[in-house]
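Input:
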Amino acid sequence: MDPVDARLTVTVGDDDGTPVIALAGELDLSTAPVADDVFTRLPEPAGEVIVDMSELTFMDSSGLTVLLMAVNRGQALRLRKPSSIIRDLIAASGLDETLPVDS
Amino acid sequence: MSAVVTDHEPVAAASDDGPATVVSRWRRRFRWPHRLTVVVVAVGLLATVGLCLVSRLNYLHSERRQVSVQAELAASALGVGPVDIQRRLGRPATLAAATGDLGLFEDAIKASLPSPFASVELFKAVDGTPQPSDSLGDPPLLDASSDQMQDILGRALSSGSLALTRIATDAEQRFGYAMATTVDGETYVAYAEQVLPGNRHVQISASSPLSDLNFALYYSDTQNSDTLLETNVSEDDLPIDSGTLAHVTIPYGDQVLTGVVVPRKPLLGVFAASVAWLILGAGFILTVVMAVLTERLQRRRAIAERLASVTGELYRTQRGVAETLQTALLPKDLPRPSNLAIATRYLAGTEGIEVGGDWYDLVTLPDNRVFFTIGDVSGRGLSAATMMSRLRHSIAAYAVEGNAPATVLAKVSGIIDLARDQHFATALCGILDLGTGTVSLANAGHPPLVLVSADGAETVQAPIGPPLGVGTSYRPAQITLSSGDILLAYTDGLIERRGESIDDGIAHLCEATRRDGDLESLLDTVLATLVPHGASEDDTAILGLQWTP
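Output:
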């Protein structure tokens, strides 16, 4: 089992017709390609996609890149339950409107 | 850079048949063995030789004992002879003495003729001198009147026990025995002769204790061809003087016989005799095998160590290249306007060996103003560095055109295509008026400026727009500096730590700053406090500006 995979687990699910991509673990430079792979395979544009971050313990600019590229392809992402640190990162990066939090 | 490490020299593919080529090829491949191998060989050889010696000595000792034992057995067997002779002569003598009937003596003697005795002579002592009295069997070899006869008769008379002599010619050999007895006051001496092998040669039966031995038996303790009694080897092989010898001494009558024995083949068996050589051979082979194995293992370990060190070298070299490139991409000489102190720092992150995308820049504008920028391209590597270079120059170009910071960011954001470039960037830029101290600035997703004034340090509040490449609308902010105020622009490597919020990092930065001392020492303090041991995962760039009107 690739150790990179073990640090990040990506699961694709469904919530009433809306695709849900759950990220669990750490999203950084080395694990970003795993997440990017899943996001690029979404049919484009899929409309709204919920990104479940309830199990995501860490994200840096590499993770932001993955999300932003998905937005750039036309996905409308809504973040569900990001940690407060990740929320601060998004706010500090001026991405509150680009990556809104699902309430 | 060639980093291939092998244990084999490349061999020419061309024809290579000459012995000189083979020798020179071997000479290129030859390496001195490692010290451990030499130790293994030394220990192996020493142990083998030692064991071999011990085994050999043990074998020789055992064989010597075996030879002695068998020699003693043979001697005992031979030593029975005189006892028998003594009985054959003595019993009749005692009988005659007891009955006073000499005829009984003669009758009893006849039982011993012709074997073991060939002849028996009876002498009567007359005035102490033995005179022939009777003769039984063949005539004796020894003449009755000879000195030798007189000598043995005299010994028999004086000792009262069995006397022995030997008569030897080239063709014949006999023992002569003499024993005295007294009958009716008269003293008689019986002289008997026993035939021995004339050619001195005997065959030994397989059941005899002498069967595995070569031996030579001699009359008296002088051992030469004259005194040789019998042997089972040819006379050309005498004397027996080499090999595991055993000497025996056999009392025979009033004389002694002496003998030498030596084994004709390994008494303890061929295997026992070869054990020492087997140990030597096996030990030698084992030592060679161990040495080859040790050498192989040492070489492999050496290769692994070399590989590891080469890998480490390559890593360090690549980091060096990355740092050199980074330095090349950053502005070398920032302008030095009066009224403005400028200080910069760049600290490469520990994560990976690729060049990063952090930058700072400062350009002078007309009317005593400067345009400053701090920026951070996401990710690492050549593509991030390339984008950083593009951004820096584009921002400088838009700035020099006279655009406001918010406009510059909007225009620059438009030249980034996230899908194509695969990176986004954060940036903060502003225009500082060196005459008035006003600063107008705009922020694209970047950590806020820290203002260090006489009252302390705090962040400069400004609306945070989206990163470059994501959005195109930015709102400006404005502040006014007091004389001596310091503006700190930095990238997130300075404040971002795993598990910690950015706000906490920014708070730490504010706590670490104070406006005593000069700008350079402030930056040093900040770095030392926030990035202890010079280790941050991410790159860190800092631009410090102090307005000194």
